[in-house]
Amino acid sequence: MGQAPTIHRLTLQDALDLTELLMTKSWRATPVLLTLLAACEPPPVDDSLPSSNEAPARRPADHRMWEPCGTSVRRLADIHPGPQEAAIQEGLHGDGLLFFTADDGQHGAELWTSSGTQGEGTRLLRDIAPGPEGSNPTDLTRVGDRLFFIADDGVNGRALWTSDGTSEGTSLVKRVLPIGAGQGEGQTLVAYKGRLYFSAAAPGGAHGNELWTSDGTDAGTHEVADLVPGEDSSFPRRFTVHDGSLYFVISVGEENWLVRSEGGAAFTPLLKVFEDTVIFRMKSVGGRLFFLVDPDEGEATLYVTDGTAAGTRRLRFFPGRYPHDLVPFQGRLYFSAGSDAPEGEELWVSDGTVSGTRRVKDIRPGAEGSAPAFLAVLGDHLYFAADDGQHGRELWVSDGTSKGTKLFADLVPGTEGASPTEVTAIQGWLFFGATTGHGAEPWVSNGTVSSTRKLDAGTARAPRAFIRSGWDVFFTAEDEASGRELYALPFRPANECTQTKP
User: Fold this and answer.
1) pLDDT at 96
2) Which intervals carry biased composition (Basic and acidic residues) (predicted)?
3) Given this model, what pLDDT does residue 83 score?
């Protein structure tokens, strides 16, 4: 067993990623199953930038033009009356409904829905565990028109549930608990080929934690394969879908493996690491899957794979905190990294090659760095928050080149900065929080400086978790009188707004 990992500038997300590393130290399986692995064979920038930020962002041709309906934001409900927070979590877009979890102070944490500024409104979907304790739903995952999640009804323990968006259609699927559910271990439940995949062990079963699948029925919920035969477990985890295949990590003896699967019993081994090493933060970019590897040091190396063992390779080690805010842009991976490097934490890019993994621009020369964060892609540009040491922390824009990476808007002139947070691209618009004198307030922009404006959310501050569902953009915000509650801005296809447009 290795020494405790060295933590550098640990954030909440970094702590969640370390959860698996710490847990894997206690996971053991049978001796390395070389015969099992041997049987699994693998299958046979644009540098231009518009001269002015006033150029409209290009929007996908297969989408309608969407727009905010005015600038007035509505609080949808005082879910938890009084100044206490409603503990809103896990917002997920459904078919015209936003699914989320909340605690109204009477039913405990339960599953809720909201139709936003129209329809039936915001309501408790079902009181799964009657009483103040609540069922604590987690891991909300959509598969087709159904929602899957983990909850405890007080009778069956934490188990797999499903919902069609109605109280009557919210029910227990099977008394089986996916491993890592609600423990911050990345994607615990994943939609793949119209089914749900996850890792679980049947109560009293003889196969340990293995790969399972579900169609939403008891009969259709079953183990896919006993990847490590017998009572020992392979602990499938860190699921992601990339290029038509399902990728995940398994444990085999004292080794961890990154594997690729088509949803059946067979799988293709791609990379072997030792038991204390964690593989995490997978990001699909075109035909390549990027991911991080931490060998129990609290620092990570960037890897890439094309879906074959031969095409799985190491790209670059990054000292300090983990590379973060990984986003695909123009067929490459962009991210923030290098907190302990001489140039500090800056914007990086990788095209999947060692030579093509490089810093985009030294925005703030020196060891402190500009610390880019909240990376979001809107049309032909990448937007993010950064501090160049002159303007404070403000919103920046990049076309992917050093020359085309520049300050987008100096919302608070001087060195203080507006400290943009939660930068989120939705249907051709950016939503974010910014502090311009009255606390962090919600803002919107279509990628031009002239369109960048503050939304009117009254006394609500600190917006978080912007998400579109139906004809609204939802987010949570905090008010001294009502605590953190759910808010929405009408956001509809062009010509569908019924009030003054911005």
Assistant:
1) 84
2) 56-65
3) 85
If you average pLDDT over residues 23-49, what whole number do you get? 36
Its pTM surpasses 0.70:
yes
Token output for 430: 């950016």
pLDDT tens profile 255-278: 999 999 999 989 999 999 998 999
Query: DSSP assignment of 111-159, as one string?
Result: EEEE-TTSTT-EEEEE-SSTTTTB---EEEEEETTEEEEEEE-SSS-EE
Reported in sequence order, the residue ranges of 18-97 that DSSP labels E, i.e. its strands, are 66-68, 74-77, 89-93
pLDDT digits (tens, 9 = 90+) for 162-185: 999 999 999 999 988 776 654 445
Please list, in sequence order, all residues whose beta carbon lies within 8 angstroms of the beta carbon of residue 265, skipping any fewer than 6 positions away. Answer: 224, 225
**Type of residue at 253:** G
User: Which residues make Cβ contacts (< 8 Å) with residue 200, sequence separation at least 6?
Assistant: 160, 176, 177, 178, 179, 209, 210, 212, 223
Which amino acid is present at 137? P
Query: 144 is written with which tokens?
Result: 């087709």
Q: How confident is the model at residue 397 (pLDDT cuts 50, 70, 90)?
A: very high
Residue with tokens 């005082």: 78
C-alpha to C-alpha distance for 211 and 160, rounded to whole angstroms: 14
392: Cβ contacts below 8 Å, ≥ 6 apart: 412, 414, 415, 416, 417, 418, 419
Neighbour-count burial for 420-432, b at 16+ CB within 10 Å, e otherwise: bbbbbbbbbbbbb
CA 451 to chain centroid: 27
Helices (H), 285-378: none
Q: Quick one: how far is CA 253 from the chain centroid? A: 30
> What band does 161 get if pLDDT is binned at 50, 70 and 90?
very high
E strands, 253-307, are 255-261, 267-274, 278-285, 288-294, 300-305
**H/E element, 13:** helix 12-24
Q: Is 3 helix (H, G, I), strand (E, B) or coil?
A: coil
Task: Provide the residue count of the chain.
Answer: 502
86-112 residue pLDDT tens? 999 989 998 889 999 999 999 999 999
Helix (H) / strand (E) element for 478: namely strand 472-479
Q: How many CA atoms lie within 13 A of 33 on its CB side?
A: 22
Identity (one letter) of the amino acid at 202?
A
Tokens describing residue 230: 């017998």
Q: Token digits for 471?
A: 């004809």
